[in-house]
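Let us practice reading a record.
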Amino acid sequence: MHISNGFVYGEDPQKEIKIDSMKILPDRIMLLTFSNGETRLFDAEELNGEVFESLKDTHVFEDAVLDHGVVTWKDGEIDCAPEYMYKKSYEYQPLG
């Protein structure tokens, strides 16, 4: 529990998380390294809704850019919160 701006919250405050690096893998999978040092796999099939519709085009999806710790597409027209990508990603276990 914590208090912030006069409000009592039941959960501990979460640190802001950013994406430090990314690599596009086959099948719309992204290898993301977060500011907490974790490297995780994100399946872009999680990105649903009209705003993400153009990402179904492989060329658009693969043209992702990191902008101040946030993955963006189409010159910033589309983005995804790092917190969401962290929450929906999976632990990465490199082989070997």
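A brief commentary: The two ends are 41 Å apart (CA to CA).
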